[in-house]
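pasting for the record
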Amino acid sequence: MTAEFAVALPAIALVLAACLASVQLVAEQVRLTDAAADAARALGRGETEAVAAAIADRITGGAALAVSAEAPFVCVTLSSAGDGFLAAIELRAESCAVSGGL
């Protein structure tokens, strides 16, 4: 092993950790988006906010849920902090559905 490689190894490990954390962050964002859509559809069908929160919690594992309604739409916003190395980043997803829709 050369001295140059030994000096560069910590930087390579840091870049690899940042890349892996970014992939994890993107996966969490996709889960938030899917959960927001599912929760909005449930509210649009006439389910209670507790049912929508349970759907979102099952998919995301504890994201904060906010509901807003402007006729004829009902919108759900989910927010969650990132995990691990990028925990300071807040993730947010919003989805809307037509109220009374099937």
